[in-house]
Automatic annotation (TrEMBL):
Pfam families: Transferase (PF02458). The keyword Cytoplasm does not apply. Keywords: Acyltransferase, Transferase. This is Shikimate O-hydroxycinnamoyltransferase-like. One of its GO terms (molecular function) is acyltransferase activity, transferring groups other than amino-acyl groups. It comes from Panicum miliaceum (Proso millet). PANTHER family: SPERMIDINE HYDROXYCINNAMOYL TRANSFERASE, TRICHOTHECENE 3-O-ACETYLTRANSFERASE. Belongs to the plant acyltransferase family.
């Protein structure tokens, strides 16, 4: 399916915004030095919006409305209109210069359902629906957006946000604000908290926890030839609200996150045919906004997440109940202010540019959870998206948990595994779910 770019422009804020350097915390600089590409799909409502001639449909997802709302949203979120810069000390920072975000309008002769049904994250999907970016280094734009109109009348919205600037909650707060402005709902706007200084290291660093597993890279791996790029197969697997509730009960009345991750962990170990005495480590992120003392504002704009991990023998994971893996996760994700302060201090003495950000060994998983975030508040005036998903995965073992649209409590699991392991993983994933309801 071909996508043709109609217009591409840099969109600055609609009003003057503060200029100068915005400091990036150690948690910002410990994030992946690159963009996080996502895509939203919107089905055309049955109300005659569509032209049927391959051109953007009249009214539905008006590019003019989207652009006007974007320039307004960039006023409070003005760092997104800046560029990645470098301070005198060589440390990366945001140059708030109001050069603008990239806004692309494109069209496709295809139908949205041809992509939406069976969508799987891949480089091809990223290249089709997310603006191209050559470099994420100094001078790079921090926000890239693409609205693609399908001939059938459906729309895809692709986003790429630099990870040094935001975490998941920050990204969704921006989309929520942009969408609220577009549909004329001023009450939906989020006023971002841009002060990152609460995440400065202490004058006398005190590292009280072991952070080497998550940031030292002892178990990282790269593909043959020294490249961190590894081939993977990906899929999005849907879990109903009833299935999620049954998994929670089976795991011992734990959260949806812990029950589902424990299930994914077990299925991945079995699909990979790992030896019973092998160690498997599962990495994840914890949002520290409400765990710091004092807590950060909910609208904190930046990276406020800390990596953590849990490990277990494969034989224990597969031989024990589902609750075993869930309990391992509970111990790894229950950290508070002390852990976050220790981590920031640890990173203060680390070479941030040299932190390993490559792939994982074939025993391990990395799980990113967007559960509970306002991910489906992307209603620009024409209804909520039919699907939100990462446009790209990075290597085998990468997993996202996402809310499904609607109020039924369903969860979408986006997973990347070694190509030869994916079909067996899917079989195990659904076989177990079939026994819990």
């Amino acid at each position: 399916m071909a996508v043709e770019v109609v217009t591409s422009e840099l969109v600055p804020p609609s009003e003057p915004t503060p200029r100068g350097a915005l400091w990036l915390s150690n948690l910002d600089l410990a994030a992946r030095n690159g963009y996080t590409p996502t895509v939203y799909f919107f089905r055309r409502p049955d109300d005659g919006f569509c032209c049927g001639d391959g051109k953007p449909p009249r009214g539905f997802f008006s590019a003019d409305v989207m652009r006007a709302a974007l320039v307004a949203a960039l006023v409070p979120f003005y760092p997104f209109a800046g560029r990645l810069g470098v301070g005198r000390d060589g440390r990366a920072e945001i140059d708030c210069n109001a050069e603008g975000a990239l806004f692309v309008v494109a069209r496709s002769a295809g139908a949205v359902d041809d992509v939406f049904e069976g969508f799987a994250p891949s480089e091809a999907m990223r290249d089709m629906f997310v603006p191209a970016y050559e470099s994420a280094g100094p001078g790079a734009p921090l926000l890239l957006l693409q609205v693609t109109f399908f001939q059938c009348g459906g729309v895809a919205l692709g986003t790429a946000m630099h990870h040094f600037v935001i975490d998941g909650r920050s990204a969704f707060n921006f989309i929520r604000t942009w969408a609220g402005i577009a549909r004329g709902d001023a009450g939906a706007a989020v006023v971002p908290s841009l002060d990152r200084t609460p995440l400065r290291a202490r004058p006398q660093p005190a590292v009280l926890f072991d952070h080497t597993h998550e940031y030292g890279g002892g178990r990282r791996t790269t593909a043959a030839g020294g490249s961190s790029k590894q081939e993977y197969a990906s899929a999005i697997l849907r879990v109903s609200g009833a299935q999620a509730a049954a998994l929670r009960a089976r795991a011992g009345a734990v959260s949806t996150f812990r029950a589902l991750v424990a299930h994914v962990w077990r299925c991945a170990c079995a699909a990979r045919a790992l030896a019973p005495d092998a160690e498997s480590r599962l990495y994840t992120m914890v949002d520290m906004r409400g765990r710091l003392s004092p807590p950060l504002p909910e609208a904190f704009f930046g990276n406020a997440v800390a990596r953590t991990s849990a490990s277990a023998r494969v034989g224990d994971l597969l031989g024990g109940p589902l609750g075993f893996g869930a309990r391992r996760l509970r111990a790894a994700t229950g950290h508070g202010d002390g852990y976050a302060r220790s981590l920031v201090d640890y990173l203060e003495t680390a070479d941030l540019a040299a932190l390993p950000r490559g792939g994982l060994p074939g025993t391990d998983l990395r799980v990113i959870s967007w559960l509970g975030m306002p991910s489906y508040d992307a209603d620009f005036g024409w209804g909520e998206p039919a699907l939100l998903a990462p446009a790209l995965m990075y290597y085998p073992g990468f997993v996202y948990l996402l809310n499904c649209p609607g109020k039924e409590g369903g969860v979408a699991v986006a997973v990347a595994l070694e190509p030869e392991r994916m079909e067996r993983f899917k079989e195990l994933f659904f076989e177990e779910l079939a026994t819990v309801v």
